[in-house]
Amino acid sequence: MAINVHQLKIFHTVAKSGSFSRAAAELMISQPSVSIQVGDLERQFGVDLFEQAGKTVRLTEAGRILDDYANQILTLIEDTRRAMDEVRGMRRGRLLIGATQTPGTYLLPKVLGRLKTQYTHLEIALRIANTRRIQEMLLRREIDVGVVGGRVTFPDLETVTLATDELVLVTAPGHKFTSLPSVRVADLSG
């Protein structure tokens, strides 16, 4: 037995309005459609949900019980829609970021501060770890995004270069490297 949310909304509207025709007008559907949907629910549950009371209808005991649940279900659905809208608009949610020491200490705090100012209800957490650990956390979905200074070696991860870093060799005056136009990494061995 699958409960149809559309039928619950129609049933709940009839229960609130006390009338099949008023419910139909509110929902902008035909009165026979309302009757069919409520009839389907009654057959599905094997109980009468309404009893006639003059020109209006009122809930039976089974109808009162179903209406309580229908109200809860419809409220939860509306709350879920609202929460998803908030997440989509970044008015709610959580962003977990993993970073290696250099970007996590020197680059991200300023960026995350601006992000938090713009999206005040967004929970932001930063975890510092080495490149390998950040990759592992991403694959286990422990974090949403990683910012690393090292080389990404896990093939299942997508990378985007945010910045390049220039390394500069600094030597004492008179060192043998000062007379060279450039120094290769291999020159540094030993």
> How widely separated are the two ends?
76 Å
Supply the helix-strand structural class.
alpha/beta
The value of Rg in angstroms is 32 Å
Reading off the top of the CATH hierarchy, the class of the largest domain is best stated as Mainly Alpha
Helix-strand sequence: HHHEEHEHEHE
Roughly what percent helix? 40-55%
| Mean pLDDT across every amino acid position | 91
**Number of H- or I-type helical stretches:** 6
- What's the CATH architecture of the largest domain? Orthogonal Bundle
**Are there runs of 5+ residues with pLDDT below 50, and where?**
none
Would you report the number of β strands? 5
Shape: rod-shaped
What descriptive keywords fit this protein?
190 residues; three-stranded parallel β-sheet; single chain; 5 strands; rod-shaped; alpha/beta; Arc Repressor Mutant, subunit A; two-stranded antiparallel ribbon; D-Maltodextrin-Binding Protein, domain 2
